[in-house]
Every structure is written in C-alpha cells, then in structure tokens.
Design a protein that fits this description.
Layout: H1 3-34, H2 44-57, H3 63-71, H4 73-82, H5 99-115, H6 121-132, H7 136-149
Helix pairs in contact: 2-4, 6-7
Length: 150
C-alpha cells in the first residue's frame, strides 16, 4: 500500500465513523425532544402533578422518597414502560440498555438532582449502583461523564 492508497482508505474510515456517529447524534436529538413527554398526559400527569412537589422536597433515597414512589406505582409503571432511559423499562434492568439509553439516563439523573435543594448527582450514582446493580466500571464512566459535561 502506498501513501495515497493509505490516505484514501483512512478517509473512507473517517467517513464511516462520521456516518455512524451522526446516526447516534440524530437519535440523541430525537430523545432530547421527546424526553418524558408521557408525563404530560394521563395516566402520568395526574400523579406527577400531585407528587412532583413532594418529591422535590424530599431527599433522594430516603424512606419518605421511597414511600412516594410506592404511592406513584401505577404512573411509574406506565412511565417506565413508555421510556426506555429507565432501567426499569427492561426485564434485565440496566443490562438491557444501550449506550444511548445510558446517556439519556445520566442526563435525566443530573436534571433530577437539580430539582432537589440537597440534590447530589455523585451520591445518586453511588446509590443507584446498589439499586440497579451496575458495575464499578459503569459507575466510573458515569462519574467521568458528569465531571466532563456537568
């Protein structure tokens, strides 16, 4: 292979990577636009109208927070079924998710932590590791992501 052939092959590779990345970007844009729209309609709207202020005043992971989630079960079941950025969407939890699901999930966790006066995304990632059973490697990737982007 000469240099010109190498350049041609490399440019083809670069083009392929660009196409693949743009496909993912397109999906991320669609997800950003459609994120949690199910909360704006029945059967979720009524429950979230009641519980959003309560959740906002509670501490993530507390008994009170857990009790609120239990009282929201019907709406949450619908929400998880409708929105694949939640580990609960999948029968095998977070192991059923793809990387785009995980990106939307960590953005959702960060935005949720911003709703609480004592919200802490690092603490949420720690607590959710136990809740969802993800690896130390994924936990570190999530921590790296929040450090680099949030």
């Amino acid at each position: 292979m000469n240099q010109e052939e190498c350049k041609k092959e490399t440019k083809q590779h670069i083009g392929n990577v660009q196409i693949l990345m743009l496909d993912i970007i397109h999906d991320l844009i669609n997800r950003a636009h459609d994120h949690d729209l199910s909360k704006l309609e029945s059967p979720e709207l009524e429950t979230f109208t009641e519980f959003t202020p309560k959740l906002k005043q509670s501490t993530y992971g507390s008994k009170e927070y857990g009790d609120f989630l239990k009282n929201m079960k019907g709406a949450l079941d619908h929400h998880y079924k409708t929105n694949r950025h939640h580990p609960e969407h999948f029968s095998n939890g977070i192991k059923g998710m793809n990387l785009v699901d995980v990106i939307e999930m960590i953005c959702d966790w960060k935005a949720s932590s911003m709703r609480h006066s004592n919200g802490n995304i690092e603490k949420s990632i720690e607590m959710n590791q136990e809740r969802f059973g993800y690896s130390d490697d994924l936990k570190q990737i999530l921590l790296n992501t929040i450090k680099d982007y949030f």
